[in-house]
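Lines hold sequence, tokenised fold; shown next:
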Amino acid sequence: MEIIVATGNKDKVREFREIFEGTDVRVVSMKEAGLFHEVEETGRTFAENALIKARALGKQAHAVVAADDSGLVIDALGGAPGVYSSRFLGEDTPYAVKNAKILDLMKNVPEARRTCRFVCAMAAVFPDGTECTAEAAFEGHVAYRSAGSHGFGYDPIFFLPGYGKTSAELLPEEKNAISHRGKALRMLKEKIDAWAACQ
């Protein structure tokens, strides 16, 4: 079975491949499938946005299409950047700039109020019109400084008190075992496997 991942982010495609490694599922990017789509993420939740992306590509692909929407939810900032995480300060703004801005906004916030979480919603749209979603969260605190070179996005400022390091300081296999995307991917994989078993 082939799954087309509705993203241009090669790091997300890599994480999909790692989850499905060792199975008979072939994960391909939009680019590899020769497809392109740019949709407006108008959903109010991560799950709604994931479905919007999967449905848009599914109309072109006539194949199993998976998409995700994820972001950083910071309690002290009223849930921001939330569903606007990728568009925070502008979609083309480097994450180093976005992370620096968040650290500045949080500079006077005490440890007890620095709670945050990564949320990831996954969606799959199947050729027969069936749809499914899966959602998971990854709890942490906003760090006091950026650290780590693994990961991407907001990982360098997402501190894990239980590990004493940021998400970007974890090895990829460590992160996949506990992260929001890893959890949501495993949940989505179960649903895709269930659908495939019925075909």
Residues 70 and 176 are 15 Å apart (CA to CA).
